[in-house]
Amino acid sequence: MSPTDTVLDRITEALLTEWHRRVEEGIVADPAAHCAALAAVALAQIGAGPAPATSPGAELPPYSGTGALCAKCSHDQAITRHRAEGEHGTDEHITFGRSRRGERLERQCWSCDYVWDEALNPPTGDPRLIDVPTLARALQEAHAGWALDLTPECAAHMARQLLGNLVVYRNHVPDEELAAADAEDGAAA
Predict the structure, then answer these.
(1) Residue 51: pLDDT band by 50, 70, 90 thresholds?
(2) How confident is the model over 66-78, as pLDDT tens digits?
(3) How far is CA 21 from CA 72, 116, 139, in A?
(4) Which helix (H) or strand (E) holds 108?
(5) What are the residues whose beta carbons fall under 8 Å from the beta carbon of 3, sequence distance 6 or more?
(6) CA dist., res. 38 & res. 43, Å (int)
(7) CATH classification number, 60-122, choose in 3.30.1460, 3.30.160, 2.30.30, 2.20.25
(8) Whether this model's pTM surpasses 0.70
(9) For residue 159, which of 6, 14, 136, 178 is within the disulfide window of CB 3.0 to 4.6 Å?
(10) Domain boundaries, the chain
(11) Alpha-carbon dihedral 13, 19, 23, 25, rounded to 10 degrees
């Protein structure tokens, strides 16, 4: 086998693998986008360009949430699994070597077992984390009614000191529990 045949085989295999990956993942794109992706793979194989992008946000559809709709059977419930870069998915039959897929969320229909990939959906922050003004107000409200109420400045200072040493989360307490605790505090006084 000549070196040209080896390069041609590598390019052909890479092109077919990329094409099948895009089809199996349900990537909807115009023909120009498919051609561009395939050209990037071919160039990477012959060393004439960058490796194809495997980042999930570049080509994967966005995360569809808890009510994902299956493209095959229209069922509205799917399992979600995190797949690390190079980790084989449920739908891949090749078990040797690393997968060419990047990090992604793998979705699987509960009804027909169809599998597709979606982009990661990281949180933008923990909504339960309390900031200084919120904790300062809570401290002032907790101290209200005492002989000397906390000044806003004192409450803010205490909040900064507490948050510097602790991680404080918001905890929603049902109104019934708050009323019972207030009644208990009143009876104890």
Answers:
(1) very low
(2) 888 888 999 999 9
(3) 17, 10, 55
(4) strand 104-109
(5) none
(6) 9
(7) 2.20.25
(8) no
(9) 136
(10) 1-52, 60-122, 132-188
(11) 80
